[in-house]
Fold this sequence. Notes:
- The chain folds into two domains: about 1-110 and about 230-300, 3-Layer(bba) Sandwich (FAD/NAD(P)-binding domain); about 115-225, FAD/NAD(P)-binding domain, CATH 3.50.50.60.
- Helix content is about 25%, strand content about 30%.
- It has helices at about 10-20, 55-65, 135, 155-160, 180-185, 235-240, 280-300, and strands at about 1-5, 25-30, 70-75, 80-85, 90-95, 100-105, 110-115, 130, 145-150, 165-170, 190-195, 195-200, 210-215, 220, 225, 230, 245, 250-255, 265-270.
- The strands form five sheets. Strands 1, 2, 3, 4, 5, 6 and 19 form a seven-stranded mixed beta sheet that branches. It has a five-stranded parallel beta sheet with strand order 8-15-9-10-11, with helices on one face. Strands 12-13-14 form a three-stranded antiparallel beta sheet, with no helix packed on it.
- The longest helix has 24 residues, at about 280-300.
- Bound molecules: flavin-adenine dinucleotide (FAD).
- Flavin-adenine dinucleotide binds near residues 12, 31, 40 and 46.
Amino acid sequence: MEDVIVVGGSFAGLSAAMYLARARRRLLVADSGHPRNRYSVRSHGVLALDGREGSEILRSARAQLLEYSTGDLADARVERVIRREHPLSFEVSTSEGQRFASRRLILATGLVDQRPGIPGLEERWGKSVFHCPYCDGYEFGGAPIGVLATVPLSVHFAEIVADWGDVTLFTNGSIAVDAAGRAGLRRRGVRLEEGVVTALEGGSNGGLELVRLEGGGTVPIRALFIATLFQQAAPFAQDLGCELTEHPRGPLVRTDESKRTTVDGVYAAGDMARPTHSIPSAIADGATAGTSAHQSLVVETTDP
Length: 304
Ligand SMILES: Cc1cc2nc3c(=O)[nH]c(=O)nc-3n(C[C@H](O)[C@H](O)[C@H](O)COP(=O)(O)OP(=O)(O)OC[C@H]3O[C@@H](n4cnc5c(N)ncnc54)[C@H](O)[C@@H]3O)c2cc1C
């Protein structure tokens, strides 16, 4: 029996695992190898690792974890998680039929972006179409930048992105902008384009040159930002009865400051349980979840 199983071994999961391994606890990380940023090569804004390849950061973290004698990795897709009481324990089954058991469970399975089905968008995701200006805006500083609306909050998002370049907000028929919204956009120098976007075109190796509109009009654009709608990548939090919160962009797992979910013994870390998404935040959440899970094991073994 492991002390802790971590489902999802990317930035949040490996960080949780590192804390547990350093606390000399037996742990297993099960991971299916699809981190959310796998579409882009370089990761930005990660202290001391700015511009490094995301896959390289994860490779190095996995190797460091395996140097601890109590840490283990399973490259596997988890299919089912069962929680038992008296004593509290978890059984995790993978698609290849392996079964593992633990006393605590950390979920770090991330989110899946629901990208709009606009021709030319998919092949540019992570190259010239992004979700986060803090991660990928700097490289396009001062250039013509688009924001593609998905939810009313996209108006505010466009006001923020205006710090990175010359911004056009494409409503694409998905939101209506009221007078206050228009005034805010004018104040930030953001142009409003209310036509339907029919295609993204141009550039090589995933680059972008223009946004094409219904009726044939085009707008020159070098990078497009989308506050994507998202889904939970895995159903385990819901299956176990953990409470979810409805963020305007999708469901998130509710946790307290210690990354405890509403179900005893279950922790959630990284994008799946927070409204803002970045590698540094996922790493921080993982460290918190790892610490909390460890301390709950200590309390259990010292209870009379
Ligand atoms: C295109 C793009 C570019 C980005 N660039 C940056 C950047 O430059 N800087 C930055 O700070 N952030 C960036 N981000 C955000 C960053 O990718 C996320 O914030 C970060 O990956 C969240 O880490 P996580 O561990 O919570 O989830 P993820 O990295 O999504 O990892 C979840 C892990 O769980 C695994 N998993 C899911 N289901 C199962 C299952 N059933 N069984 C086993 N394993 C499972 C997945 O395979 C995956 O490995 C970018 C995001 C995108 C989309």
